[in-house]
Amino acid sequence: EIVFSLLQRKTLNGSSFKTKDQLREAIETFIRKHNEHAKPFRWRKREVKGSQLQNTIINLRN
Question: Of the candidates 55, 62, 61, 6, which has an alpha carbon nearest to the alpha carbon of residue 34?
Fold first, then answer.
């Protein structure tokens, strides 16, 4: 999920592709550059309060 988020923010947002080949090339370029400088993601545990969890569950039901 994190890699897809990075792809979205760094490559796809605000971009316009006229062909599938242009889109494919942009994605492949992102992957190539990302892999050249790859390092592990730092995972952090986030504290979630009961009300936040309840709001999330309510939003998922809608």
Answer: 6
The total of structural domains in the chain comes to 1
State how far the Cα of 9 lies from the Cα of 33, in Å rounded to an integer.
15
- The residue type found at 7 is L
Amino acid in position 30: F
Residue 45 DSSP SS3: coil
Q: What is the pLDDT of residue 30?
A: 94
* Among the listed residues 35, 30, 1, the one whose alpha carbon sits nearest the alpha carbon of residue 13: 30
Structure tokens belonging to residue 4: 């897809």
17-50: per-residue pLDDT in tens? 999 999 999 999 999 999 998 888 887 777 766 6
